[in-house]
Write a structure and sequence with these properties.
Helix content of chain A: over 70%
CATH superfamily of chain A: Tetracycline Repressor, domain 2
Number of helices of chain A: 8
CATH class of chain A: Mainly Alpha
Number of strands of chain A: 0
Number of domains of chain A: 1
Largest sheet of chain A: none
CATH topology of chain A: Tetracycline Repressor, domain 2
Shape of chain A: elongated
Oligomer: homotetramer
Distance between the termini of chain A: 49 Å
Largest interface: C-D, 44 and 44 residues
Radius of gyration of chain A: 19 Å
Order of helices and strands of chain A: HHHHHHHH
Chain lengths: 193, 193, 193, 193
DNA sequence: AATGAATGAGCATTCATTCAT
DNA sequence: CATGAATGAATGCTCATTCAT
């Protein structure tokens, strides 16, 4: 489904590729939509497990940039290894192909919401040196932008444009740190109400 | 096709929605793949026309940031208004749904290559104050990253996460300018071989 | 469909038996329900045409019994020759098999309503010797009972119980005439308000 | 099965509606055909039990008409209360839907044969005042016609045409009595060889 | 004795495409 | 040039049935 899209994947093809009868899929998942929902659910779980695993023992010192670099490069690794799941995820985000699979769409929304929360946490942890209040605000304000970066990173990855992921993440980190530090200065000078 | 994907759009549905007989589509486009190719070709032309139009009379002074902001906010406008075309474009980039339509895929690659050249031109024009050589290098090095930004911007747009496009572009510009200026300083100090 | 029922008749079987591709049926009738609707509609038209044809030039003299006999024996002929149509009709009356084909069900109701009107007309014409008012009342009151007779006659026919149709119709006529004459006497003695 | 027909009733649906696992049906009845056979067998038993119960203590005096009326109105009650069973019975009589269930078809034939014998008995008992020989002949000759009446009555019932059952039975009785009495006179005048 | 899991054949329907007119 | 009619292959799904437990 990740490769051919939801509509482009026929139950017969899927069954043949899995080496099981079509009816076995229906027995276990009820419908094509149910299969997609299950696939997304499992993908989501594995994705977040991989993220948690990748971010075990984060660095407790170093500059904001070093810390964010540590988080994002590891996130990039997960991105590359979970490409199939993300392919399907982005596909469902940008098309209505799976309108008939509302459960799967809910998982999509959930993954994006939790994913953004995760990014927020990474940024906040990285900027903790600026003080907790500042770090919290910076994390909140930059999480959407960080997500844009990772979404775009994935599209770039799929377009096979040859640009190494590591370099792109480096630039993402550089940009985020620049914006984050500017914002931190601002906040220290004139703290929000 | 943008809404439902290539596989998810049946010729019957398309013909009905267009209010013409199915055979008329075959008469004009030969096949479903031919229709997609034509759609992409026209979409690409209109897209670049809109970009050219939007960037008529660029500012000849101001800071790098101001100039890039001008370019990118206008690009963002085009993005928002050509969402259907971009939807299909990204869909074809991330999935193999239209493997049977190689002509369309060529258009996709062409649009992305030209699009990146366009972004490179915008960045270079914005950084022209750093000297032409530096601006050229900065433009080349940041064009992929800028594209990542716009790809991600589009995904964000489709996910209806509510974050205003203008703000995201502002952050994109801020990040790019920070990286670009740092790189400019570097290049001025130790020019590349 | 008459033989195997609606649910028991698969489109594949029907197409094979008709010697045409399944898709041809869908092209012409849209769906299985549409096919049934068309079949019932044509059956109904042919049925009433056959009835009209059979009752051309009814006798203008003779006893009530002779006249009703003339009508009913000819109706019985139509019954026997349109057995397939009636089989499907009764099937749809007694089961919910074709719930998904509401158009067909409307035809069923229409055929029964018109059919009863037809029986009413036969009875009234036969009893015209009792006076038009009396004949009209007798026709109205006995039409349901006459229909019961023909419905039952058909079931008897399908059950292959070996009883000749001619004899059963003879008894139906005898019964109807007896009831009709008794009622006529009653009406002549004490006309209704 | 009575509602949707044999072919129209899937084992899954039946099991779900019964609140038991599908395999339990197979455990007890062996096959779909076996289930139908069992259903018909039980239905037949209950049907005849209800008939016997309804006709306990028949009137030992009164006119033929009064006695037949007694029998038939009570039979009509059973008809109305055993509609589901009769629905399935008539369905099996008029269609070949359950060709694969020969045991059930045998039950159908048996029920109709016994049912006719029962009707014969009712008529004979009612005409006993005409002498046993005459009553026996009248019963034999009118049993088929009586069955036609009850078959048609059932179809009428299912067609929801609004005609009260009691009235129809009244007319059936009137008709039968008229024919029976005429035949009795005939037989008394010129007894058969 | 009872049942959840499993399955190949078949279901109604839609598909992209062709072609006679 | 344009199209209604036609079609074989495939679609998602359900079927009656089996069987290991």
């Amino acid at each position: 489904m990740a490769a051919r899209g939801y509509a482009g994947s026929s139950m017969s093809t899927l069954a043949d590729e899995a080496g099981i009868p079509k009816s076995a899929i229906y027995h276990h998942f009820g419908s094509k939509a149910g299969l997609l929902a299950a696939v997304m659910e499992r993908g989501a779980r594995e994705f977040f497990d991989a993220m948690t695993e990748a971010h075990r023992n984060p660095p407790s010192d170093g500059t904001s940039r070093e810390r964010l670099e540590w988080y994002f490069q590891r996130t990039g690794d997960v991105w590359v290894h979970r490409a199939e799941f993300l392919r399907l995820l982005i596909l469902l985000v940008i098309s209505d192909e799976a309108e008939e699979a509302p459960e799967a769409m809910e998982t999509v929304v959930r993954v994006r919401t939790e994913g953004r929360a995760y990014l927020e946490h990474m940024i906040r942890s990285s900027f903790i040196g600026e003080g907790d209040d500042v770090a919290r605000i910076v994390g909140r304000e930059l999480s959407f932008y960080a997500m844009v970066g990772f979404d775009g990173l994935f599209v770039s990855l799929q377009s096979h444009d040859g640009k190494p992921v590591v370099e792109l993440i480096d630039q993402m980190v550089a940009g985020l740190v620049a914006i984050g530090e500017a914002r931190s200065r601002e906040l220290r000078t004139a703290p929000p109400a």
